[in-house]
Amino acid sequence: MKRNAWAAGLLMFLAGSAVAQPALREATFGTNWLAQAEHGGYYQALADGTYEKYGLKVTIVPGGPRANNRMLMSVGKLDFYMGGSLIQAFSAVEKNIPTLVVAAHFQKDPQVLMSHPGNGLDTFDDLKKSNDILLSKDGSATFFQWMKAEFGFRDEQVKPYGFSPAPFIANSRSVQQGYVTSDPLVIEKTAGFKPNVFLLADHGFSTYSTTVETRRDVAEKDADLVQRFVDASTIGWYNYLYRDNAKGNALIKRDNPEMTDEILSYAVAKMKEHGIADSGDAQKHGIGAMSDERMKDFFDKMVKAGLFKADLDYTKAYTLRFVNKGVGLELKK
After folding, report:
1. Closest residue by Cα to residue 201 from 274, 140, 284
2. Per-residue burial over 126-158, b = 16 or more CB atoms within 10 Å of its CB, e = otherwise
């Protein structure tokens, strides 16, 4: 009888302990495109239980051609959003949209220009000789304006880019935009040659990328949620880049069945080779790091390029409150 009573008491104790465990806090995170390696840190944190360790039940909402996750975050339908360059964040200030960049998981924007080797377009400065620079409307309105202001490129050089490599492959004097993590591989596999690749970040396009944005009221009233999400995501990025990322890749392929192991492996290698996530301030302060100096540098360049007026209070676009804490640095070792 005593043994049965002891067992019953143990069961009651365990049941009470289970009830006492705090419930996971739900959080939604919208990406800006279909699942890919460039989102790997977030998928890794979800797949390996890092978000749960931080008390979060995270739902990743993939972006895509028909999605507008940034708007959904802005109106309160999502808690966090994966931004692109800082141009979006500065534009939000200009339009009085109360959003805030709370982390930047890419120190470098993966944006590149590509050219055919051996055709007189083998340096970045050579690209000014091409009369067929294939750019999207967004590229023409953003980084190409900086290229004009900084290097003397001209509007008449631009031709529309329809997101097909065929025109670039067919014209050896053409230049095409792309991402260092994917498009050079597409050209190599489709056309059989390795293109010249010019990473704009290495030529002064100093924006952060793959940012974490939230609404200003969330950052102010629920700072603990923001801190936990930023820290867990940062750890996810270290684990994705430097440890076994198989679980993260499995979730990426679940959300984007067209993604292949070859593309994922190539993207991770290029992110590491070029220091996309882990370079500059991130090597000292941790992935996700940001600085006032870097923000001012990029804003000043965008003012010079004519994208913003000099009196815009760009400092309202971001906060350093949640970064530069060295989170995850030990995982790289």
Report:
1. 274
2. ebbebeebbbeeebbebbbbbbbbeeebeeebb
The pair of structure tokens assigned to 26 is 């739900």
Contact in structure between 150 and 302 (CB atoms under 8 Å): no
**Mind listing the pLDDT tens digit for each residue in 139-171?**
999 999 999 999 999 999 999 999 999 999 999
Name the pTM for this structure: 0.92
The model's confidence at residue 22, banded by pLDDT at 50, 70 and 90, is: confident
Instruction: Tell me the C-alpha distance between 327 and 45, whole Å.
Output: 14
Q: Which two tokens stand for residue 135?
A: 């750019």
Phi, then psi, of 112 in degrees rounded to 5: -135, 165
Query: 308, 275, 262: which is closest to 37 by C-alpha?
Result: 262
Phi, psi of 61 (to 5 degrees): -105, 105
Local structure of residue 313 (DSSP, 8 states): -
Q: Measured between alpha carbons, how far is 308 from 248 in angstroms, rounded to an integer?
A: 38
Q: Find where tokens 């489709």 sit.
A: 190
Structure tokens at 331: 């995982």
The amino acid present at 207, given as its one-letter code, is: T
Strands (E), 118-247: 133-135, 158-160, 175-179, 196-199, 209-215
| DSSP letter (8 states) at residue 22 | P
Contact 143, 178 (CB under 8 A): no
Closest CA to 285 of 319, 235, 242, 328: 328
Q: Are 280 and 107 in contact (CB under 8 A)?
A: yes
Which residues, in sequence order, are CB contacts of 159 under 8 Å at separation 6+? 132, 133, 134, 135, 167, 174
